[in-house]
């Protein structure tokens, strides 16, 4: 099966790509940076895996249409994401809009483009990479939290609209994952809260999590693989929360 993964050169995206490649799926890496895409695809190909790439800006309708035409997906992983940390009154409006476009409108439009072929094949799996912030909130992240909350509602609607065929859509919501994106957040939060970076990790990021640990990218990749197995064919419109007990309180 063909798996298209957005944000595929990043920590979570490439871990998901590696997992699906090892499971003998054809993997298509989709991201903005063509040089990085070439390198990552070559890395998989050198290991004997079936890998290709597609330059994709998920806010660009023409590129979405081109990706869906060239690489119609059996499995779509909506993973592309960005972050900006600021109080709402200091949040640049254009930056706020960009976060919504990348993490809510983009997944919706790419899913929309892939759906006709999935329905024609009577098989489709859409996996959204959400966040603990699809369920809870943190200060200074209004756009990110809004986008991730919206992703859950979007997924439920699409699941209902396509319940007449072998199609599922689910959202994986991890607590903090140690990726370059989170590393940048640590520095930004340290500045915003006037704390050291270690204090941000201990007092903000891991404080609400009973297990006191970052989520590993392999956990997210393994959950995505599970959602594509026959054992998960009736799991749809669901939120799979990898949070070490955070939301139990």
Automatic annotation (TrEMBL):
<dbReference type="InterPro" id="IPR011294">
    <property type="entry name" value="3-OHbutyrate_DH"/>
</dbReference>
<protein>
    <submittedName>
        <fullName>3-hydroxybutyrate dehydrogenase</fullName>
    </submittedName>
</protein>
<dbReference type="InterPro" id="IPR050259">
    <property type="entry name" value="SDR"/>
</dbReference>
<dbReference type="InterPro" id="IPR036291">
    <property type="entry name" value="NAD(P)-bd_dom_sf"/>
</dbReference>
<comment type="similarity">
    <text>Belongs to the short-chain dehydrogenases/reductases (SDR) family.</text>
</comment>
<dbReference type="Pfam" id="PF13561">
    <property type="entry name" value="adh_short_C2"/>
</dbReference>
<dbReference type="GO" id="GO:0032787">
    <property type="term" value="P:monocarboxylic acid metabolic process"/>
</dbReference>
<dbReference type="InterPro" id="IPR020904">
    <property type="entry name" value="Sc_DH/Rdtase_CS"/>
</dbReference>
<dbReference type="InterPro" id="IPR002347">
    <property type="entry name" value="SDR_fam"/>
</dbReference>
<dbReference type="GO" id="GO:0003858">
    <property type="term" value="F:3-hydroxybutyrate dehydrogenase activity"/>
</dbReference>
